[in-house]
Amino acid sequence: MIPVYLQEQLRNFFFTAYYATDLENGFFAHVKVFLKTNRIFCLDQGVSDTLIGFLLKNKCSQAEMVRLCVVPFLNQALFDKFTESLPADIRTLMDYLVWNDGIDDQEIKAKFDIKIYEMSVYGGRKELIKTFRFFKVINEGYGLTTSFVLYLPVALRRAMAMYYPKPASAKITPIEKIPPTTFVFEGEKIVFNDLPNVSLFILQGNVVTTNRGELAVTGFKKLGAALNLPEFYPNTNVKELQYLRTRLLTTMGLLGEDLQIEKNPLNHLKTYLDATVFLIICNCLLT
What is the CA radius of gyration of the chain? Predict the structure, then answer.
């Protein structure tokens, strides 16, 4: 059996991720068929009589459905038996969606030759075939242009993946001996090439700082634009990474802003780095 805390996590997932009606007509409908068909097997695997007894009721509450939905995930044998009980089309799509984020009806038809919708008896619109409500569904479009995207929530994919064989792409084969390479990327050279320009820009008083001497947002953005500094992640949407390289270079420059410019740029750079390292060590000792 999986640990109690994992069972609790799955119960919380089913309770919060589904409305009672959606759970009853979707994932639980398949679990119910599995439990009724394999009642003795489940009892032999340690599932309690009380839990199985919920199936004798005409209608289960949401809390009872949630507890029953966790049963297929209690151990490998139960999960394997559960997957065997699923319709072949559901098994095929589940095998795919455990490792992939989602798939629409057109791709499902092209990749697996499975049709997941039918035309409404009233005409003019598509309706998802009920058995495919095993998956979460996103409806896109309207009427005849409706498209259905099926997916499994991340929490459910993680629970299923525990019992799936690892895909070939997840197996890491160590290299016994690293082969010789003809190219070595020395990123520090690029940093050193930019540092003299950054230092000069700061010593000219062009960088804005706060009253506490800290770097202001407008300060490093202005410096980056003026010097046309390339970023580590130029296309990222993560705010903290958008100006990471410019921020680091500007911060280093501010640590050495009281230095005088020497005639020899290389000597200036060495002096600058010595002062910077000294200040960093002092800051570390004080904090």
Answer: 30
The rounded average pLDDT for each run of 10 residues, N- to C-terminus, in the chain (287 residues) is: 87 92 92 92 91 82 93 95 95 94 93 90 80 91 83 93 84 81 66 77 76 69 82 79 79 62 53 58 50
3-state secondary structure 254-271: HHCCCCCCCCCHHHHHHH
Alpha carbon 20 to chain centroid, angstroms: 27
- CB-CB contact of 256 with 272 (8 Å): yes
Residue 241 buriedness (CB in 10 A; 0-12 / 13-18 / 19+):
middle
Whether the pTM exceeds 0.85: the reply is no
∠131-141-125 over CA atoms, to 5°?
Answer: 60
Contact 21, 61 (CB under 8 A): no
Q: How many CB atoms lie within 10 A of CB 16?
A: 9
* Residues 192, 194: Cα–Cα separation, whole Å: 5
- Strands (E) in the chain, as ranges, are 103-104, 117-119, 126-128, 136-140, 147-151
| Residue whose structure tokens are 């940093």 | 191
The b/e string for 45-83 (b: 16+ C-beta within 10 A; e otherwise) is bebeeebbebeeeeebebebbbbbbbbbbbbeebbebbb
b/e 244-262 (16+ beta carbons within 10 angstroms → b): ebbbebbebbbbbeebeee
- End-to-end CA, the chain: 48
Element (H, E) at 30: helix 27-37
**Residue 129, φ and ψ in degrees, nearest 5:** -65, 130
20-24, long-range: CB < 8 A, 24+ apart: 20/61, 20/62, 20/65, 22/133, 23/62, 23/65, 23/66, 23/69, 24/60, 24/65
* pLDDT at site 286: 46
